[in-house]
Design goal:
Elements: H1 4-9, H2 11-19, E1 24-30, H3 36-45, E2 48-54, H4 60-81, E3 86-90, H5 92-103, E4 110-114, H6 119-125, H7 134-149, E5 152-155, H8 158-164, H9 168-171, E6 180-182, H10 189-192, H11 197-208, E7 214-219, H12 228-241, E8 245-250, H13 259-264, E9 272-275, H14 282-286, E10 291-294, H15 309-315, E11 320-323, H16 329-336, E12 339-342, H17 360-371, H18 373-389
Parallel strand pairs: 1-2, 3-4, 4-5, 5-6, 7-8, 7-10, 8-9, 10-11, 11-12
Helix pairs in contact: 2-18, 4-5, 5-7, 17-18
């Protein structure tokens, strides 16, 4: 519950589904302390019932298998009290829990496989698993079984849909007639990015003390598939050409992954800020920024990615600099005029480009067309639920 993505990419969608008349029960796994009474009361106010189990991390495979078994037992217990119509599983391991729970239950709920990414390939790309190893091969076998068990699918990008369900482009269904929906990571404009953009920008820049700076923002993780060194190189180029360059990193990751890189490239203490902030505060910093960075290693696995940070940047009225080859990012930026797409290593002249020519209001309007929680995310989930149940 304390993860930023749960606050921005889980609960807002559940609120929309509740508005559509669905009764929603959320199960999370908690690695540490959680204010149970406060969380339960907050979600209950939105019409969401909440349950949680303890998360176990190490040793990796046994811990995951234990959590899966524990979840199956718990879901089966819940279904004795209330026979659910849908078990909605966000990503592979929860889908395993849902599929096994259905197998051992007397009820027969539909299974919605919400594919948040090509998980096995992502673990290989990140160097966690060996593509020739037993863990990867067994997980791919399990993935094939989960794909057969599902009654409907969500993918985050058109690129992922083309890989997994090429036949679904016109029909919206796979070859067996099971519904497939593309739902990118969306933004709740009303709750988070409302108000006068110019006014909020002026106020936040003053609070942050960057009125005369050109602020590059990065939101999210560092290291692994996130190209931290390449971002530092781009910022270095910008600083060489504009001494007013300021680097802002809002991350849950270790600051040691970026701070030494900035210092090596001539950034003094007054030239950057690396900070961990709650999800609800991210927009305050983005309103103070001039451009947002999204650099992710382009691989087969990242075709499935819809970077959450990009709609957040646009919702704050700032353009995006992103590398090519990730999800639908290239197409969206080029077709809708949302910023600049770069090829890795081609950072030489990025600071020369006129990043100040984008009108904040226009960027926000285009973001609504692509990433609005209500008209895109909520509406598509409502339609998908209806089709899965039918």
């Amino acid at each position: 519950m304390n993860e930023p993505l749960v606050q921005t990419q889980v609960i807002p969608y559940l609120r929309e589904l509740v508005k559509g008349g669905h009764e929603m029960t959320l199960l999370t796994f908690e690695p540490g302390e959680v204010d149970e009474a406060a969380v339960r009361a907050s979600l209950a106010a939105d019409g969401i019932e909440w349950n949680w189990l303890r998360y176990h991390k190490r040793p990796s495979v046994p811990a995951t298998l234990y959590d899966v078994a524990n979840a199956v037992r718990f879901i089966r217990k819940l279904m004795r009290k209330q026979p659910f119509d849908i078990l909605h599983a966000r990503s592979h391991v929860p889908m395993m829990m849902a599929a096994l729970a259905r197998k051992v239950s007397s009820h027969n709920p539909k299974l919605l496989f919400d594919i948040r990414g090509f998980m096995p390939e992502e673990y290989v790309d990140a160097g966690v698993w060996d593509e020739t190893g037993a863990i990867y091969k067994n997980f791919k076998r399990a993935e094939n079984w989960l794909m057969k068990e599902a009654d409907g699918f969500v993918v985050l990008t058109e690129a992922a849909r083309e890989v997994l369900f090429p036949e679904s482009s016109e029909s919206g269904a796979d070859i067996q007639g099971r519904p497939v929906e593309v739902i990118p990571c969306c933004v709740d404009f009303e709750r988070r990015f409302s108000g006068d953009l110019a006014e909020r920008r002026s106020m936040r820049r003053k609070e942050l003390g960057v009125e005369d700076r050109f602020v590059f923002a990065h939101v999210g993780a560092l290291g692994g598939l996130y190209l931290t060194e390449e971002m530092a190189d781009l910022l270095h180029r910008s600083k060489l050409e504009n001494e007013k360059t300021f680097a802002l990193f809002l991350t849950q990751s270790d600051p040691g992954l970026i701070v030494p890189l900035l210092r090596e490239r001539g950034f003094g203490a007054s030239d950057f800020l690396v900070k961990k902030v709650p999800a609800a505060a991210v927009e305050d910093y983005l309103f103070a920024s001039d451009v947002g960075l999204s650099f992710v290693k382009a691989t087969f696995a990242t075709k499935s990615r819809s970077p959450t940070k990009i709609p957040e940047y646009l919702a704050a009225g700032i353009p995006v600099i992103a590398n090519s080859g990730v999800g639908d990012v290239d197409l969206q930026i080029k077709e809708y005029g949302l910023g600049v797409v770069v090829s890795l290593g081609d950072h030489t002249r990025i600071a020369d480009r006129d990043l100040g020519s984008y009108a904040p209001i226009e960027l926000q309007q285009r973001a609504r067309q692509l990433f609005d929680l209500r008209s895109i995310g909520g509406e598509r989930y409502q339609q998908l639920y209806a089709r899965v149940i039918k």
